[in-house]
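ok here's N-acetyltransferase domain-containing protein, seq below lol
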Amino acid sequence: MDRYAIRTTRREDWARLRELRLAALLDPLAEVAFYQTYEAALEIPRQEWERRAAGERITTFIGYPVDPEDPVGSADPADFAVDKPWAGMVTVFPEPDTFAGTDTDADSDTNHVVVVGVYVRPEHRGTGLARNLMRRAIDWAGEREVRLRVHENNPRAARFYASLGFRPNGVGHPDPRMPGFQAVELTLPARR
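and the structure came out like this:
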């Protein structure tokens, strides 16, 4: 049995989602893992966190530790996670214009989805949680192509994504915080 359970966030999870995102942005690797800064995330209003947690236009999967010997673990995973510390997350959404930073609604009929915000707390790294979170995101994509960006100065993440089948697609995105550097776009082909 897995040491972690995974579920999607709900509106009432907004404060915990915010806390986990802020922890991610304070991580020493944040500079090469996220475009957003800690300071910018602090400015996001509660309503936006609620919208994100509710899964409006995006889906966030969170992982939390479970004890296989705990009989409560067979209960509804959403209820079981209430008092469990969140160990990691991944966000996925269909990509029309949202990945480019616009505020238009995502079209669920797009041919590809985007993975963002992959994070596992340091004490849970190396446990398989990141792989399981990514598998859930890939499963969520169904038959659509999956894309993500990895900073060229983050070889560990690049190796991890390659182990899942992601490959560079030739597209690079300049890093606005690190002139002269870029994030490389990776693609996992659609499953048919």
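fwiw Helices lie at 14-26, 30-33, 38-42, 46-54, 77-80, 129-141, 155-163. kinda neat tbh
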